[in-house]
Amino acid sequence: MAEQKPGSGGAPQKKSGASRWLTAGCLVMALLLVVCVVGFIIVAKGLGVGFYRDAITAMQKQTVVVDKLGEPLQYGSISSMTFPVTGPKGSGVVTVIGSKIDNEWRIESLTVTVDKTKEVITVIGPDTPKKR
């Protein structure tokens, strides 16, 4: 009868602790990558990239715009947006106008229009104190 060497044949060897940590780390990194990609897609859609593209397409189809402004049309960065805001006492619309100076975005105006009363609340504007 042949003698069996230790560690050969018989029961399979168990994975080392380092191997398990490496596998777990790879799984976590893959999951983080998926979360980042999904997050980027959600943020890009939330920033209105589609609206911007659609607006440009609509303008290009209107010959009156080209007649008044000339060709070729050049488009700047998105500099204003509106989005809804709600609270337990009501709802409204936030309007933000910004500018890009030296590769840095600055909010020039931020207002909230209350739906029920149509009151416009200026959060940031020409008359609001600037933070230093």
Write a compact overview of the structure shown.
This protein has helices at about 15-45, 50-60, 65-70; strands spanning about 80-85, 90-100, 105-115, 120-125. The chain is extended.
What does this 3D model show about the protein?
- The chain is 38% helix and 27% strand.
- It is an alpha+beta fold.
- β3 (104-114) and β4 (120-124) form a beta hairpin.
- 1% of the residues are buried.
Describe the structure using short key phrases.
3 helices, 2 domains, alpha+beta, 4 strands, extended, 4-stranded antiparallel beta sheet, 132 residues
Number of domains: 2
Global mean pLDDT: 77
Q: Globular, elongated, flat, extended or rod-shaped: what is the shape?
A: extended
Count every helix, treating DSSP H or I runs of 4 or more residues as helices. 3
Strand pairing plus helix content: what structural class? alpha+beta
- Could you give a short account of the major beta sheet? 4 strands, antiparallel
- β-strand percent reads 25-35%
What is the string of helix and strand elements? HHHEEEE
The side-by-side strand order for the widest beta sheet comes to 1-2-3-4
User: What's the N-to-C terminus distance?
Assistant: 88 Å
Give the proportion of residues in helices.
25-40%
Number of strands: 4
